[in-house]
Amino acid sequence: MERAMYLALAYMIIWAGFAGYLAWLSGRQRQTARRLAELTAQVQRQEVQS
Amino acid sequence: MSLVQQTLLLYRKDLRVEVRKKESLIAMAFFGALIMVILNLAAGLGGRIEAEPAAGILWVAILFSSVLGLGRVFAREKENGCVAALLVSPLSPGAIFAAKALVNFTLMSFSELVLVPVFFALFGTGLQPSPLILLVLLMLVNIGFSAAGTLLSALAAGTRRNEVLLPILLYPLCLPLVALAVKATGAAFAGRPVSAILDQLEPMAAFGLIYAAVGYLLFAHAVREV
Amino acid sequence: MLKRYDPFAVLALFAVPGAAATVFFYAPLERTMGVVQKIFYFHLGLAAAAFLSFFVACVAGILYLVKRQRAWDERGAAAVEIGVLFTTLVLLTGSIWGRPIWNTWWTWDPRLTTSLILWFIFAACLILRSAVEQEEKRAVFCAVMAIVGFVDVPVVFLSARLWRSIHPTVIRSEGIALEPAMLVTLAVSLTAMLILWAALFRLRCSLQRQENALLDLQQQLQR
Known about the structure:
By secondary structure, chain A is mainly α. Chain A has 1 helix and no strands. Chain A has one domain (1-50). Chain C has one domain. Classes of the chains: A mainly alpha, B mainly alpha, C mainly alpha.
């Protein structure tokens, strides 16, 4: 039964690895999208002014 | 001017610079010897050492000292603003690669001329020197390490973290080469005949050939960005 | 996260749990190693996906050097990063599998050693990427490193096999006769991992594209 613990550990790590990576990607994507939106708004403001 | 002539021209010029200043050679030999002393103290090894750990010590010392010379060959060009000059000159990038790799090979060989005797002086009790086998192994590793190292030193020189980056890039790549060298050298130190290590010589030679070819092809791309 | 659902992501959503179910409920129990052996199915799938990733990184590197199109650098970056992730998981699962079997967390088994060296080579790629700021220089350097790194793979594997001949205690999983049920499970897990790889790859590529677009915009504003 102790061996089942190792099995469980391995699968938990696989799951945690992918979930963690996806969470990190998701965070980066949100940050990039936010900055992109800010800068696009800034460009539009500049175009309106000129 | 043919490729060989170009290579030899650049090689002779670089070698003259190295021999005149001797800074790389001295640093490499000194650092290598220092590593051996440190390993002796740190690993608590003294007196008789088994063949394979001894081989490991020799190769660690050679590896660490070689990186010093490798890094300098390109860094010096960049510091003096010579890279652009090299590229503008009629020398082909392939010739530049071959010349630099030869310079690195020569530097490694010269530093090993110092390091191997020092090694035997410090750790040699009970080890069989097997000079011919050792020479072959040293040459094989020098070829592979210089080829891969020259290409990667172009990459590292193009960043701001040259000295730090080169070992990070180079060592993982060369691990198989070095590991085989350690095994083979250990066998040689234990007095085994050449037939015992032929298995290991093949991949080592393959490594050298592969990286000479790959380096030659990719160097042109890398050096234009330095 | 994905506004328009990527087909691979949807597939993965079904394939990965499906593979897990196959592993846990369909695959037979292995005699000598018991239930721990079931790590093998995903472990192999992860390794295959990692290898694929580095292959893609190498090809993307070559294509970038030839064509100099930014899209290939984006794909190369994604492939290396995901490859390092998968290789990390290969190492961790391999270690966990080894612990109850060989009673040690690490062994210089040729495949684990190969994986470890590969991890270092491609982690070095990531470090290189972060060390260069100019886009074109970074792309060229990373392309070169990816090619050079992948070319090393056969050499690493060959030399690791030579170490093995000196370590007789290695258990080879192919030495255990794979029953048909195990083969099916293996095929399912492998497929699921490859689908997952494809989904992650596409996601990471689109993120890279977005970030490049951001950089373009920032440069445009600075003018």
